[in-house]
Structure formats: C-alpha cells, structure tokens
Write a structure and sequence with these properties.
Region (Disordered): 26-107
Biased composition (Pro residues): 70-83
Largest sheet: 7 strands, antiparallel
Strand content: 15-25%
Shape: globular
Number of helices: 12
Order of helices and strands: HHHHHEHEEEEEEHHEHHEEHEHE
Distance between the termini: 139 Å
Biased composition (Low complexity): 54-69, 84-93
Radius of gyration: 40 Å
Number of strands: 12
C-alpha cells in the first residue's frame, strides 16, 4: 500500500474512535436508588412505594440493613394513628361467658349453661347471669355470667333480687342498684319455686321490651340443667297476676261496685325467707292470707310473690285508708301498698301498688295511692 493509502486509513480509524468516545461521555451517570425517605418526599405512601409482591409485614427497626445505614435527612413522617380502643369487640370470658370455680348448680358440667348464657347475652345485647342466694354468706353469688365479668357477692340486705318472687313469672326490677354489672332495666326470673334454692336468671338487656320474650325459654332450659330440687309433679297452670287484676276489674265494672287493690307483706318477711325453712314460709303465708280474708270487705286474696299477698277489696278510697290503718294496727306487723280505685291497665295497677309498698317500707307505715 502507498503512503497515501496508509494515511487515509489512519484518518478513518481516528474518526471512528472520536465518535465512540463522544457517545460514552454523553451517557448520564446512574442515579442512586431511592430509599424509603426519598419515596416519601415524592409523595408516595409506604403502601404505594412497596414493590409488587412485597410482604405487608412492617419492617423491624432493628434489622441489620437499617441499623448499618446512616440516617438520611428528610421530612419527618407522622406515626400511624392507633385504632380507637372502643372499636375492639369484647373477647375472652366476658363475651363467651364464664363460670365461677365455686359454682354448685351444675355438678355434671357447666359448659351447656355457659353457652346458653352467652347466647342469651348476644340476643339481648347486654349481660346475663345466674345468681344464687348463699345463706352462709347472706349474699347472692354469681354461678355464671356472660356479657359482663362475674360480680362479687351481692349482700342480700342491699340486693333487690332478695325481694324478687321465686315463681315462674318474669319480673322487672324497679331499682337495680346493688346488682353489680347488671344495670338499667334488669329482668329476673327464678329457676325454680320453693323449696328449691333461690337461684335467678338475671338479664340486663339493651332494650327490655325486645328481650322479654327471650328470658323465659332460656330460664326453662337453665332450670332443666341445674341441680336445684327433685322434680315436682305438674300442677295446674295458674293465671298470671295481670290476668287476675283484669278479671277483678271486669267483674267490678259489670256489678257496678268499687274496687281497690293492695299488696301486703309481713314486716319480717325478709328474715323468714332468709332462714330458708319452707314449712315456716308456707305457715306464715297461710296465716297472712287468713288474716286478710277475715275482713268482710276483702273479696279475694292471691299470692303475688314470696310472702306477698294481693288483696282485692270492695272499698272506695276512704274505706281503703281506714282498712289499711286497722290491718296495720294488729300483729304481726305488716306493710301495705294500696291502689284505689283500680283503674287503667292491669300492669300499671300492679306497678302502682308495688311503688306504694316500697314507700311503705321506707316510711314504716301503710301507703295508699290514687288509681
């Protein structure tokens, strides 16, 4: 090759090398990978900045990679807000029900009773429990509860349950103070009649009216599971207390005569009941009913609870006041709550008489209210 040929070949090679080197200098240097703080500064949340398929588990601040890296400057991020504790659902023994380790009503096992109480508490939207009178402690002790913790023993002298009738009727406690976690409208029903021990199903529902129909069937099921008393022979069904009042109201209206209603109990009824002597209770109640029936104005007497007698009288309000004074003056001492005349709904009449009887307890004398 001639000298000119070699010169042209060198020029072409130099041009190619110059183009290659210029192209390399034009390529921008690689950018460092963005850390978590850099992504945050760009407006991306931790969730959106996470790579696809990454685990949602929060990283630990003690991981080796983060411990070795120096802190990067950047805007501070607020800590995620904690969930409000009020949103947490009850769990554990309160929601599922719990049984006292000293429970005596279920010697064959308390699991069925616990499940029944948990179901009732869930249906009623409140608390449900079984309380039994302990004569040695003179208090009502919780055998089991659901929707609330097991309460401490409730002293009988301050517990309205001690005045609740031990029959098959559902009772709404007028003053539920002294009932531990059972507050508001408290419904109670005895699991068995005397001579069985005083044991009650107690329910504090969110809405008493909606829960009334639920308590009775659950009480029957719990009674069947409980060791309360030997099975008694069936007895003819007795009309409800409200039905008895309505019956007397209709009769008085047809016959055109006055009608008054009184609830009467012995002043020492609580002491008699606390001794848990069935024969003594039966004798005291029979004596009280004979004493009331001996008065010519008393048309009818009916049991309205333990040592609590309902008396229907052919008297106007003035005559009822005189009857209360004469009845209270004789021994043994009694408390009377009377309504005269008997007008309005039967349930309202009974409630008014119960309020008057409560006032009689407080004032230590007979109490008469207008119907």
């Amino acid at each position: 090759m001639s000298t000119l040929g070699w010169f042209l070949l060198l020029l072409v090679a130099a041009a190619v090398a110059w183009v290659v080197l210029r192209g390399r200098r034009a390529t921008p240097p690689p950018r460092p990978a963005l850390g978590r703080d850099d992504l945050t500064s760009l407006g991306l949340s931790e969730v959106r900045a996470r790579e696809p398929g990454a685990s949602p588990v929060r990283e630990s601040s003690a991981s080796p990679a983060r411990a070795a890296a120096p802190p990067r400057p950047g805007p501070a991020r607020p800590a995620p807000a904690a969930a409000p504790p009020a949103l947490a659902r009850p769990s554990g023994p309160v929601a599922d029900g719990e049984v006292s380790p000293d429970a005596t009503l279920w010697p064959d096992g308390a699991e069925p009773a616990r499940h029944l109480l948990a179901a009732l508490a869930a249906h009623a939207g409140g608390a449900a429990g079984v309380l039994r009178y302990d004569a040695e402690a003179d208090a009502y002790v919780a055998e089991a509860a659901a929707g609330a913790r097991l309460p401490e023993p409730l002293p009988a002298d301050r517990c309205p349950l001690h005045r609740a009738p031990q029959d098959g009727e559902l009772t709404l406690l007028d003053e539920p103070s002294g009932m531990g976690p059972f507050t508001g409208d408290v419904l109670v029903r005895a699991l068995a009649a005397p001579p069985a021990a005083r044991a009650f199903l107690v329910v504090a529902p969110a809405h008493a009216d909606a829960a009334v129909g639920q308590v009775g069937p659950f009480a029957d099921l719990l009674a069947g599971l409980s060791d309360l008393a030997p099975a008694a022979p069936p007895v003819p069904a007795r009309p409800s207390r409200a039905a008895v009042i309505r019956e007397e109201q209709e009769a008085a209206e047809v016959e055109g005569r006055p009608l008054a209603f009184a609830l009467v109990t012995l002043a020492d009824a609580e002491e008699i009941l606390a001794r848990e002597a069935p024969d003594e209770v039966a004798e005291a109640e029979a004596g009280l009913r004979r004493r009331l029936a001996d008065h010519p104005a008393v048309r009818r007497t009916e049991p309205f609870g333990d040592l609590l007698v309902g008396a229907f009288l052919d008297l106007d309000p003035d005559g009822v006041a005189a009857w209360c004074e004469s009845t209270s003056a004789s021994a043994p001492a009694v408390f009377i709550g009377a309504v005269a005349p008997v007008d309005g709904a039967a349930a309202d009449v009974r409630a008014a008489a119960a309020d008057a009887l409560h006032d009689a307890y407080e004032q230590q004398r007979a109490q008469v209210v207008a119907g």
